[in-house]
């Protein structure tokens, strides 16, 4: 499949899956703080990894992720009603830790800068 088309499919699936999770999934473990950050679909459209971001503790994140994985078939059926694809992919939910990594790197760089400034002040 052409990369541009795959990007469009991923973008469309991201929007549709987000909508289904928030409007149609009725699971008490799945909170409104679930955000679909990106979708990576295989070239043959048979599999899709759905990356989600959560505002929750680590234990809650695991429960929400498990609940989403349990509801993956339900989500796929309802999402497939909104998107016309020859094959609707099997959904696998993953935690997107990209934001947490960026915050961690930002903190490290900030600490390095503070250390550098304190050393330059000590030399003066």
How do the SSEs run, as a string of H and E? Answer: HEEHHEH
Number of helices: 4
Question: What is the SS-derived class?
Answer: alpha+beta
> What Rg, in angstroms, do the CA atoms define?
19 Å
Number of strands: 3
Q: Tell me which CATH architecture applies here.
A: 2-Layer Sandwich
- CATH topology description: GMP Synthetase, Chain A, domain 3
- Across the major sheet, the strand order is 1-2-3
Portion in beta strands: 15-25%
Low-confidence stretches: none
Helical content band: 55-70%
Mean pLDDT: 89
CATH superfamily: K homology (KH) domain
What would you call the shape? elongated
The CATH class label is: Alpha Beta
Q: What is the number of domains? A: 1
| Ends apart, CA distance between termini | 61 Å
Produce the secondary structure layout:
Elements: H1 3-23, E1 35-41, E2 47-53, H2 58-70, H3 72-80, E3 90-95, H4 98-123
Parallel strand pairs: 2-3
Antiparallel strand pairs: 1-2
Describe what this molecule looks like in 3D:
17% of the residues are buried. The protein has a three-stranded mixed β-sheet. It has a single domain (3-97), classed as 2-Layer Sandwich (GMP Synthetase, Chain A, domain 3), CATH 3.30.300.20. By secondary structure, the protein is α+β, with helices and mostly antiparallel strands. The chain has four helices and three strands, in the order H-E-E-H-H-E-H. The longest helix is centred in the C-terminal third of the chain and has 26 residues, at 98-123. It has helices spanning 3-23, 58-70, 72-80, 98-123, and strands spanning 35-41, 47-53, 90-95.
